[in-house]
Amino acid sequence: MTATEPETRRGPAPIQGLGMLIGLLFLVLAALELMSGVTDGAGPHQLFGLFSVSGLWALLHLLTGAAAVFCTRSSRLASRFLVAAGAGYALAGLAGLLPLPQAVTDVLPLNTAGICLALALGTVMLVLGAGSLQRGRRR
User: Structural domain of residue 56, as residue ranges?
Assistant: First the structure.
């Protein structure tokens, strides 16, 4: 390539690969939550004895993973998904810090490890998605 030729890019954008990786992470997480051998049976179900899980969490992780894999078809869609899902998980982590009614915590249990994971994942997804959208606007 010479200095006068425009740079052409082939293949998926990096944000698409990151979106696919995050989607696969959520799909594996959902599969682990649904496997009875990975969660312990005493009291509220715990994944690896660390994260509180429920059937609704498994369903949410499964849907998030499937949506992430679907949204990696374009870089703009992947960025928007990461912003929306990141905001959702960050809000779930922040909600876990509040005193919630027993009915909510029975359906969506959150312990300290789960709150930290939701806040971390949400923040990372928000930063990646927003950064990619901002970078795309500058081009």
Answer: 15-35+47-138
CA distance 72 to 30: 19
Whether 128 is covered by a domain: the verdict is yes
What value, to the nearest 5°, has the Cα angle with vertex 80 and ends 66 and 28? Answer: 25
40 phi and psi angles, rounded to 5 deg: -85, 155
Confidence (pTM): 0.82
Q: What are phi and psi of 10, to 5 degrees?
A: -115, 150
Q: Give kind and range of the element (H or E) at residue 136.
A: helix 112-138
* Angstrom distances, CA of residue 111 to CA of 7, 31, 64, 74, 133: 49, 20, 20, 35, 32
Q: Is the dihedral of CA 131, 77, 108, 35 positive or negative?
A: negative
4-50: pLDDT as tens digits: 555 566 778 889 999 999 999 999 999 988 886 666 655 567 888 88
Partners of 47 in the β-ladder: 39, 51
Dist CA 61 CA 47 (whole Å): 13
Give the distance between the most distant pair of CA atoms in the chain.
67
